User: What shape does this take?
Amino acid sequence: MKFYFSLQFQMLKRNLIEFGVNPYLGFLISLIAFVGFSFLLFFKTIYAPYIYLIIALSLIVKFGETRRNDFLKSSFSSKNYRLIRAIENATITLPFVVFLGIKNQWIEAIFLFSASIIFSLINFKDRLNFTIPTPFSKRPFEFAVGFRRIYLVFFLAYFLNFMAIAVGNFSLGLFSILAIFVACMTFYGMIETEFYVWIYALTAREFLLRKIRTALLYSTILIVPNVISLIFFFPTEFHFVIIIMILGYLYLINMILSKYSAYPEPMNLPHAIIFGISVTIPPFLVFIIPFFLKKALKNLKHTLE
Amino acid sequence: MIELEKLSKAYGSKQVLNSINLKFERGHVYGIVGENGAGKTTLFRCIAGFEDHFGKILSDFVKLKNHLGFLPTDPFFFPKITGEEYLRLMCNARNIEDVEYEKVNIFDLPLNQYAATYSTGMKKKLALTGILIQKNDLFILDEPFNGVDIQSNMIITGIIHKLKQLQKTVLISSHIFSTLSDTCDEIHLLKNGEFVKKAEKNEFEQLDKEMKEFTIGNKIELLNL
Assistant: This one.
């Protein structure tokens, strides 16, 4: 069991090295980012403890994936298997529990810690026979796959929009549109094997244009209910809706281009930094989008042309 | 027609393909055999354009890859993408429209289920259907019979005969010699990155015998069973 955890630690270190960062520096940066994010979240919204719980629980759900657990069960004794699961879940949730404690959110902290132990007894099946219907089947794969993975986020965004209208909070409505765009951006975090690029009888430019066109069309389908209702109920603020839409589209394009600028590898540290700058300082998109485009075209030419 | 001229490939210091020369004609089916690690998959990946290499790959097409259907040994499917969506993706990629997916589903696959949940054989059949509906001119089938049931085996054999009839070029690798002798016009034996033997239809039996003798030899005796 000790070897198992040292192997996990090695894997984590290797991932950081592949990401282009010294492992120990990576741990330090992760810690600083976690603390910074936590303070920002608690400063920005009163719902922070709940968002915090959702993030922590969604992380430990991943450890309950069936195939991974089948492997662990077949490799370790029942006692050790349970112990591994409990230690893993507790380790993941520990930083969240500590921060909730610092913020005097004791009930949430105790709930989260208890949930992490209970979740270690549960395996989550990812092989359901039920196929989630999606309006994005015509042009697979990013939106079809992504929607099925996180469709609840969209329902939450629509609910937030409904609440925004009900309580007259226009900013919350804008936030719901931005949340949909961010969710769509995560669809492009998946790195497909070269085969899925190779199959296209297109040039690199045509390929990227098709990807972008599909993303813009499908993201528009997802934001339409929020956009129309916000413009209808807050007609004098419609220009803000348009600005958020344009920003969302640019972020989405930026995400697609940044993905293929590193392809077939996942984004490394320099890419992530440039991408981070473009997200935090949107005017930089004017320079960063052409930069990513040039790199993406060069990368894709290798596979497509 | 496809012609390989002095095709070589190395991974670091390991030479996987060593100056291979071979011609693949239209309307012919070619079998490639060899031990694990002989270089079959690397050869296929080079022809498909997945791997950088030395030497030339000449063809009648401006862009060979746009006319090539590649069936990998172990096809990858995204989680949460249905069989039908996979076929649609394959068609979209080649700008092919108006395909009746249920009609072309000759292996009776559950197209509305997630492809990643399919069995090994079903995945192979879905991937094969995908490259067939793309209407390619050249097919590279890396272990097409692996994990596939006997009925589907017969259908795949039938498909290969049909492709030959339609003047397509087919390259197959398989560890099951009988499937190759049923379908191929020529079989080439790949060993340590070089083609060491070529057999035509009337020589298949002899090749099979030689391979068995060479491969098995007295190895089993060494186990002292």
About this structure: The first strand of chain B starts at residue 2 and ends at 11. The radius of gyration of chain B is 18 Å. The helical segments of chain B are 40-48, 83-93, 101-104, 120-132, 150-165, 177-183, 204-216. Chain B touches chain A through 29 residues (CB under 8 Å).
